[in-house]
Amino acid sequence: MRWPVPAVVSSPIPPVLVKLGPLDADRVADLRPFLDLVPDPRARRGRWYSLASILLVCACAVVSGARSVDEIAEWAQRASDAVLTAVDVRRYPLRWRRSPSRTTIGRVLAAVDGDALDRAVGAYLAGRNAAGTAVGQRRVVAVDGKSLKGSARLSVARRHLLCAVTHHRAVTLARAEVGAKTNETAHFQPLLEPLDLDAALVTFDALHSVRANVTWLAEAKNAHCIAVIKRNQPAAYRQLAALPWRDTAVQHTTSSTGHGRRESRSIKTCSIADDLGGIAFPQARLALRVHRRRKQTGRRASRETVYAATSLDAHQTTPAELATALRGHWSIEALHHVRDVTYAEDASTIHTGTAPRAMATLRNLAIGLLKTLGADNIARTTRAIRDQPERAPPLLGIINNLDAQGT
After folding, report:
1. Which of 61, 159, 252, 267 could disulfide-link 72, Cβ–Cβ 3.0 to 4.6 Å?
2. What are the CA-CA distances from residue 157 to residues 146, 152, 160, 174, 179 (Å)?
């Protein structure tokens, strides 16, 4: 399948898009069946555009780099009749199609069921991520939260979202709005309940390192975890810190350089006795000690020691895998960086209804989809799509209505 570009467009396909490879049904699933599951919040009277068609317009625009409702509407205005047909925009009696207005798009995003939209997008991305996972490779999922800074108003606190994100490609599998960061722990189990986590490894920060959550993961989901133990759990922290680390050799080291700093990390592991494991959590089998050293140009070197426990034992994992998983959890911040820099999420002032959450869902959809297709620079890829709307639908599996115009 070649990129379907109308004959009137003579510009060559940018290399950044060629790199994504063929967009056929084996690699790109059709998004429309998933969006059809989202209930329409509008009254039937006076409804011209279907909910799925408006959400498809929004998805195509955000994949093209749209940062706001205004930019989504501008993308729709640039879209040709063939593109509007492909995204299921109805034809008027005079046989012409009109893109939805900025007001229509804004009202739909403000009223749409955020939970249903997250489930639809999460199911779509989970299927794409599973299709690209190497056989025998352990799935690693991070649980992390992010606030939408621009959504706050004088009488309304900023929205806070809790997400389950894969390490491999930073694909968002599930998400829930939790109100505030302090509410994350209560939403941990409901967030992960719909996911298939059998034999997967789940990573999270110290906020979620509570016995109820890690026990539920092991018993209800048959999953493993790495729980960071900090001083807010004094008994477990003291026990882990008192293990014979001085007599334990460093088992794995890594280093990296970037952004004006050099960082090195070393890891030691130590088996946990049953009585000690019960202090951290009953399923704990290995204790981890990670030492980080960071040197930034012009500043003194900083050092940090982190203790953690995992339900994996020495026969099920290696120090290198554990170090990669811990490092991978913090690298999820790279996803937040893309959302803030490429999509200006923190600068967004959208605040009405569920619109802030819906826009965040569309950003996760765009980033996750492009990542699964092999894009290594989201900003550059969206710029290559932005000015030619016909390039967006094939990324979402909408190719049948554009094939007749392919070149």
Report:
1. 61
2. 13, 5, 9, 22, 8
Alpha helices by DSSP H, 87-233: 102-111, 114-131, 184-192, 211-220
Q: For residue range 74-102, what is the model confidence (pLDDT) as tens digits?
A: 999 999 888 998 988 888 776 678 889 99
Cα 332 off chain centre by: 8
Map 260-312 to HEC letters. CEEEEEEEEEEECCHHHHHHHCCCCCEEEEEEEEEEECCCCCEEEEEEEEECC
**Residue 51: enclosing H or E segment and its boundaries?**
helix 51-63
Task: Give CA–CA dist 369/28, Å, rounded.
Answer: 9
CA gap 185, 176 in Å, rounded = 12
Residue 146 has pLDDT above 60, yes or no: yes
Q: What's the pTM value of the predicted model, to 2 decimals?
A: 0.84
Q: pLDDT, tens digit, for every residue of 315-360?
A: 999 999 999 998 888 767 788 888 888 898 888 888 888 899 999 9
Structure tokens at 337: 């960086």
Q: Could you give phi then psi for residue 304, rounded to 5 degrees?
A: -150, 135
User: What is the DSSP-derived secondary structure letter of residue 189?
Assistant: H
Q: Residue 232, exposed/middle/buried by CB under 10 A (0-12, 13-18, 19+)?
A: exposed
Whether 398 contacts 31, CB under 8 Å: yes
**What is the Cα–Cα distance from 57 to 349, expressed in whole angstroms?**
21
* Range 216-232 average pLDDT: 89
